[in-house]
Amino acid sequence: MTHTESRTKFKTLLDTLVNKGFSQSCVERVLAIPQKTFETYRVSKRRVPADVLALLEILNNYPWILNVAEDKFSEKSAVANMVHNVFKTLDGTKSALEILGSTSE
Length: 105
Hints:
elongated; 0% strand; mainly alpha; 2 domains
């Protein structure tokens, strides 16, 4: 992948996360990448490292991981976010709490 392709992919992946409601600063914090480095990837002719692109791909496919990371990777947060997103994916409109609430009695 050329430096131009990697930079374009970086911008696309980051913009997608921002469009999903996550701030660039959140992504920077979670990945422990300084803001200045992110800006360098955005504007310079430097190739974006493959590991950074891979992490952004993972976060785009599983954006709830950002919530877990913000909660210091607590197991409770991980399970809650994962279950919530499983139900959200399966049902499409109802939240996991609505589905679980309607089946418990």
